[in-house]
């Protein structure tokens, strides 16, 4: 991979998926900052952080699969791809033309180019999903990315890393370790690269671990505390 940044951008662009429109009335219009998605107001104005003009967005709580975030359903149930139980996450609803994906309207209507009826499109929101994906505990890092630690079996710990949209993503240069007293045990990439693995022998339940992780070379090392009262189980 020559450029992480380009791959990441393509990944983001591929993300918006077409779905059935919401049932009943539309979610209300909120106002958010293009640079600070955590800023959400019920009226237009300027971002309190950067003073940019807020832009309109319709936020909707929908059902989605933690492994297939492009799945959008309007009721509880199971993922049509993998059969997992769906969870609630926040997505942004807009309307687009099937032939002109650049059209992105906040209200339903017709395409200004070919007059087709616009269809609903659901896009992920940063921090719209803070559910653990592998039965562990999920924490937001100060840099807006996320980590989840699991304890699947005695002495075994796994670490999953997610971006601000809670999509799995292990940044290049990522390092992490479990601090045990004066020493530390490094997490190593596991087979397939989906998560990192570390073993702490003789740590009984309930287990508390202190993880120190650095996402990128120039960032500080952050501390995360995880507690396990039981072994983690993958949701079904
Ligand atoms: Zn802002
Ligand atoms: Zn799924
Ligand atoms: Zn069109
Ligand atoms: Zn978050």
Brief sketch in words of this structure:
By secondary structure, this protein is mostly beta strands.
The total domain count is 2
Count of alpha and pi helical runs? 1
Low-confidence stretches: 1-16
Helix percent band: under 10%
Identify the strand order in the major beta sheet: 1-6-5-4-2-3
Instruction: Let me know the largest β-sheet.
Output: 6 strands, antiparallel
Number of strands: 15
Bound molecules: zinc ion
Q: C-alpha Rg, in Å?
A: 20 Å
Q: Which structural class matches the secondary elements?
A: mainly beta
N- and C-termini, Cα separation: 33 Å
Q: Rough shape? A: elongated
Mean pLDDT: 89
Question: What's the oligomerization state?
Answer: single chain
SSE order: HEEEEEEEEEEEEEEE
């Amino acid at each position: 991979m020559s450029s992480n940044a380009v791959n990441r951008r393509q990944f983001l662009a591929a993300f918006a998926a077409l779905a059935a429109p919401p049932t009943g009335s539309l979610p209300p219009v909120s106002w958010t900052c293009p640079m600070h998605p955590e800023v959400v107001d019920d009226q237009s104005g300027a971002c309190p952080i950067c003073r940019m003009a807020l832009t309109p967005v319709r936020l909707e709580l929908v059902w989605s699969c933690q492994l297939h975030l492009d799945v959008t359903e309007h009721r509880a149930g199971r993922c049509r791809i993998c059969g997992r139980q769906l969870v609630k996450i926040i997505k942004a609803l807009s309307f687009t033309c099937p032939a002109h994906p650049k059209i992105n309207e906040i209200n339903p209507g017709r395409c200004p180019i070919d007059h087709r009826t616009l269809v609903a499109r659901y896009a992920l929101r940063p921090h719209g999903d803070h559910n653990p994906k592998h039965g562990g505990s999920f924490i937001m890092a100060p840099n807006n990315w996320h980590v989840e630690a699991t304890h699947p079996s005695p002495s075994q710990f796994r670490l999953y890393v997610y971006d601000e949209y809670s999509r799995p993503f292990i940044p290049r240069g990522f390092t992490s370790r479990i601090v045990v007293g004066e020493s530390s045990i490094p997490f190593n990439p596991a087979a397939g690269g989906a998560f990192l693995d570390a073993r702490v022998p003789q740590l009984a339940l309930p287990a508390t671990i202190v993880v120190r992780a650095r996402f990128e070379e120039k960032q500080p090392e952050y501390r995360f505390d995880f507690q396990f009262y039981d072994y983690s189980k993958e949701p079904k």
